[in-house]
Amino acid sequence: YFAASDGMGIKVDTDNTSVEASNAAGADNDNAVNLGSSGTRWKDLYLSGGVYLGGTGSANKLDDYEEGTFTPTNNGTVGVAVSNGKYTKVGEVVHFHIFFQWTSNTSMTKEFSGLPFTVKGASSPENTYYTMCSTWNNQGVTYPSGRTTLQGFSVPNTTTVEYSCVGSNVASGNPTFASSGQLYMTGHYYTAS
After folding, report:
1. pLDDT tens across the length of the chain (193 residues)
2. Cα(124)–Cα(120) distance, integer angstroms
3. Which of 119, 59, 100, 121 is nearest to 184 (CA)?
4. 60 Cβ contact partners less than 8 Å away, ≥ 6 residues apart
5. How far is Cα 138 from Cα 71, in angstroms, rounded to an integer?
6. What is the pLDDT of residue 32?
7. Is 68 exposed, middle or buried (0-12, 13-18, 19+ CB in 10 A)?
8. Rounded distance between C-alpha atoms, residue 72 and residue 40, angstroms
9. Phi, psi values for residue 184, rounded to 5°
10. Is 38 left (phi over 0), alpha (psi -120 to 50) or beta?
11. Within 13 Å of residue 143, how many CA atoms lie on the same side as its CB?
12. 77 with 107: CB under 8 angstroms?
């Protein structure tokens, strides 16, 4: 171990294959030493495993973080002007945003496929009632009578998000799409990946 006289030190623990904080005598110095400071920061940290935040239990372990893009695909016959998707994955939760603009429409469907990760199965507690998504700024979308909102939900065991029209005390229904238009959708879902 290496230590300063004020009690701050670092040691190599061959029993646990780890590098740890120590006191001046080389003993464990738990929860007392910072790695860097507000004015003296390390740059990047490369890990092949996870990081424990706020505790040492399995629930405190963040083992995955990812950002990226994807291309949402409508399964109908549609002339696509823009089809952009962006996501952030933190652990098993995927946050996503879709912008879709079409210029022609023969048989546009009420779903998009191409989510970046498979939606967790319906038997999982977090997906028992599905995960809702919100949509807005929908140009070229017509709601059935009595429906005022376009509501999306992820489909378990697929890479698909569907949407339908809902309203107060009215069952959901299918929207219709003009020959051109655009819509935005944002939401999150759980994945087993």
Report:
1. 888 888 789 999 888 899 999 988 889 999 888 889 999 999 999 989 999 999 989 999 999 999 999 999 998 899 999 999 999 999 989 999 999 999 999 898 888 999 999 998 876 665 554 566 777 767 888 877 777 677 788 888 899 998 877 666 555 667 888 999 999 999 998 887 6
2. 7
3. 100
4. 52, 53, 54
5. 19
6. 87
7. exposed
8. 43
9. -115, 145
10. alpha
11. 18
12. yes
- Cβ atoms 127, 156 nearer than 8 A: yes
pTM of the model: 0.80
Closest CA to 133 of 181, 185, 76, 179: 185
Q: Are 111 and 163 in contact (CB under 8 A)?
A: yes
Q: Which residue has the tokens 């319906």?
A: 122
* Helix, strand, coil shares, percent, the chain, to 5: 5, 50, 45
Tokens of 167: 């309203």
What are the DSSP calls for 126-159, one per residue?
GGTT--EEEEEEEEEEEPPTT--EEEEEEPTTSS
22/18 Cα distance (integer angstroms): 12
